Structure prediction request, 497 residues.
Amino acid sequence: LRGGVEKSSFNQPGVENARSGWRVVYNNSGEAVEVETAAIAPGTVVTVADLFGNWPVRRTFLSAAQQMRSIQSIIQQIAICHPHVNWQLRQANTPCFYITPSSTAEQILPQFVRGVRSSDLQYLKLDLPASPQNQKAANLLLETQLVGATSKHNYQLPVANYELPVTNSQSLELVIGLPDRCHRRRPDWVKVAVNRRVVRSPELEQTILSAFARTCPRDRYPVCFVHLQISPSEIDWNRHPAKAEIYLHDPSFWQAEVGAAIDRALHLNDEVLPAPHIPDRVGQLLKASEQKSAYSVGVSARQNNDGGEQATGNKIGLMELRAIAQVHNTYIVAEHSSGMWLVEQHIAHERVLYEQLCAAWLLKSLEKPVILRQLSALQIENLSRLGLEVETFGEQLWAAREVPALLADRDDCADALFELSKVADLQAAQVATACRSAMRNGTPLSVLQMQNLLDEWQQTRNPRTCPHGRPIYFALEESTLARIFRRSWVIGKSHGI
Prediction:
């Protein structure tokens, strides 16, 4: 800031238990012009005034509104990497905005992004190992040191196959907006920070967008902040003159770590749901409390052939959801240990089928071919990209002898293939196939069928939204029900005593 700041001052307390601190004012050359004692609470206050005061051309380069937006953006990028710092911005001695400090980026992000609440966000912090490339470099350094040391007198060889430990502690901090609750028109809040500095990393940004693929509505983008605390040896800053864009050594390793962290944050498990908050005084005053049922995690309500309970194989554990009823043959009412959920059956089944198709795009041969009419050359080419070969069957007629397995037994298979001929990529075809093949709303289901669907849906990779971005479930916590029915009222007052 030297040369561009007319005046800056630092207020800092003295030694612990001192009655006053110090106030130091610097001029635009970085020289201290005022040093005096000041009454200040523990901490440091930095004030920057008359920014670009000596550069009038710079001050008039942008409009006042554009300057303010740029300043806000810079402060937000710094603040999200240092959430414990309090920020205040004034213009003409009028407060413009301020940022209240918090312990994590999750707690201050709602101050930046309009319409986003803390309950819309998911926070995750993980310890990371050293990348294989960094570990290899450390081992090479060890070998080099050993070669030099063996020339010394009385040198004793170390234990074979010894690896030099990488002592730098590395971590990944992740804040995501749950796709069923918040998303944006632009990818302006897909941000990456490295070692407390927001930077551009196209590889990681593309990884983030890919991890959220088919979770947000069309032409919408996620809210995601990734903060890597890694060894400086993992970073190459020589990508951009302003050091705003970086290279990461071994980018595939970091992409895999970021993708796995996002997948973990998007899963439905007990770590995602906050525990319902009931005031202690309510529990003491209520003479009778509602008995809560407990269900085994990862155990389905369906029975196997031996009459026992059949456990599912989700390695992260299923939510404690038990199918209770069906509303309008469309919504499944499920009981949870902390409340109740409503799940729309069609899009839950669509999510299940879509991820099955992503795992294996299977084609099935037909004894009787499906006849398609009036296909253009582009439509035939699109079908060929999907592995669906058609052959001429007559004038403006084509025969398809292989179709996606999910469509093989459907009466409208020809209509489905005609729709697939209009899409140019496999992912769009998988979405269309899953949507057409999923059970329709209005289909009555037994309790066993509902439970099976809930179990399969929970094991999907992105269970929060359908491939089109629609939310699949609505959670109603027990604490919310207690507020609706005013169960927190004092018993004596509720009886008019």
Notes: The chain has 14 helices and 22 strands. Residues 64-81 form the longest helix (18 residues). Confidence is low (pLDDT under 50) at residues 1-6, 159-167, 273-317. The chain has three domains: 5-111, 118-138+164-266, 280-287+295-497.
